[in-house]
Write a structure and sequence with these properties.
Structural class: alpha/beta
Strand order of the largest sheet: 4-3-5-6-9
Number of helices: 20
CATH topology of the largest domain: Rossmann fold
Number of domains: 3
Distance between the termini: 57 Å
Length: about 475
């Protein structure tokens, strides 16, 4: 293969290190590279080639880090194309594969942490050994430390069949605020009216429908049906039967509600050490059950269970009010290392905001959806798939999958610093960094020159104050 073709991935030509092989002295540089492996490139010779393309020199530590070592890193550097174990025994670049391996790593790191290849090379190339080590250590997780914490205090158990009873709609039905009637007064009043009219047996759903014909209850039918969903097909023959059926659900609500409130206290107590926040929307009883099963499948899997993860399970937590719930969720998102977004039957503004909050803080976001069609929408089209880390200006993207096993493997790779990325050069100046398991775009560098230059010239100059 022609040398130009082998190195074409690294020819973005945006004025930074990706212009190294495209400038007016490109032919001379390519000619020197063609002499590998017979005439290796020392640190000094490499800097001379950079100077020919008007690029700044790199430190000895930078040269060694990227071409002559296989260090602990936020991802597996030995998985990068071109790697060979012998590189760690060299003090210079011996082959084109070795050269490509180091350049590939520089491009990945630049897109991951600096938003553009030029920015990343500028920031990293002058660092000494301690500067490079310290920078990348700050981006890594401590799997040994996670394991050494031991198991967290377990939340109080709530039977999966009862998880829906901690939902806001159930709470509004059984413990309404203000002057609202609870569901018992509504359904009992409907029963009295039914008995006065004609009597006879009817289903609980028919009774509830008749109650919600009254103007004061018409806007609450969804709430009442959610809270007593399992009673809807039941046939009611007398008042005692109605009371018994209602009280059986109300008793389970009281237990689940109190346990969920105590669990929230537990989650708050671990906010300083929270690993994973699970965001979702649940509007049906079966969605609570399915969510509970998914969380159990993820966090009990042997691949990650040994990390003793502190995670927020939305099917085990409740708040004393809507405003408190919002504050709790904001804190959990802010505290968590990773956010898992599990798409429900109807996605809500609140959960989209939580995912956006996590992305804007540069956190890994895993999007799980069990429909391939929806996966494609969220992976390729949904605005939450690409946002900006507000601190650094780096464009970040979520990782979307339709497989629970992928969610588990991604969590393992994130926490063990074993992520795998693929660099794509779609067209001149346009680079994408793709997460290898899900094929999700997690970083991007645009080829729209005016946008790119204006963005980086302006981003860190704005302090966000109003004029």
């Amino acid at each position: 293969m022609e040398l130009d073709a082998r190195l074409s991935l690294f020819t973005g030509d945006t004025g930074g290190i990706d212009s190294w092989l495209t400038g007016e002295n490109a032919d001379r540089i390519i000619q020197r590279l063609a002499q590998l492996p017979g005439q290796p490139l020392s640190h000094s010779l490499f800097n001379q080639l950079l100077a020919l393309s008007q690029q700044p020199p790199v430190s000895r530590a930078f040269f060694d880090y990227y071409w002559c070592s296989s260090p602990m890193h936020p991802y597996r550097v030995d998985d990068i194309p071109g790697y060979h174990i012998t590189y760690t025994k060299f003090d210079r670049v011996e082959t084109i594969d070795q050269l490509s391996w180091g350049l590939y790593r520089i491009y990945v790191d630049s897109l991951l942490y600096f938003g553009s290849i030029r920015n990343g090379f500028h920031e990293l190339s002058a660092k000494d050994a301690s500067g490079l080590s310290g920078f990348f250590m700050s981006k890594m997780y401590d799997p040994g430390g996670l394991i050494a914490r031991g198991e967290p205090i377990s939340p109080l158990h709530i039977p999966i069949a009862d998880r829906y009873l901690i939902g806001e709609l159930a709470c509004k039905s059984f413990e309404p605020s203000g002057q609202d009637r609870d569901v018992w007064h509504v359904i009992y009043g409907a029963w009295i009216e039914h008995r006065q009219r004609s009597g006879g047996k009817l289903t609980y759903k028919e009774l509830l429908d008749s109650a919600c014909l009254r103007p004061e209850f018409t806007g609450r039918q969804q709430e009442f049906e959610f809270a007593t969903d399992e009673l809807l097909p039941e046939v009611i023959e007398n008042e005692e039967q109605l009371r018994q059926k209602y009280e059986s659900v109300k008793g389970r609500f009281d237990h689940a509600r109190q346990a969920a409130l105590k669990n929230t206290d537990l989650y708050l107590s671990m906010s300083g050490d929270l690993d994973v926040y699970v965001a979702t929307s649940m509007r049906k009883r079966e969605e609570f059950r399915e969510m509970a099963r998914i969380c159990e499948a993820i966090f009990t899997d042997p691949l990650i269970s040994h990390y003793n993860l502190r995670f927020f399970d939305p099917t085990l937590s409740a708040a004393r009010g809507h405003e408190d719930k919002g504050l709790i969720e904001c804190l959990m998102v802010r505290s968590a290392k990773v956010l898992i977004y599990i798409a429900g039957g109807g996605d809500t503004y609140g959960k989209d905001v939580e995912a956006a909050m996590a992305l804007s803080q540069g956190k890994p976001v895993i999007f799980y959806c069990d429909e391939e069609r929806r996966l494609k929408i969220f992976q390729d089209l949904h605005p939450l798939s690409r946002l900006v880390d507000f601190r650094s200006g780096v464009a970040v993207g979520l990782m979307a999958t339709s497989s629970v096993s992928d969610v588990i493997l991604l969590l393992h790779r994130i926490l063990s610093n074993e992520m795998r990325y693929r660099l794509e050069h779609k067209r001149k100046g346009y680079f994408r960094l793709v997460e290898a398991l899900t094929n999700s775009v997690v970083r991007v560098q645009t080829d729209y020159k005016l946008l790119r230059e204006t963005f980086w010239n302006s981003y860190h100059k704005s302090d966000g104050r109003m004029a």
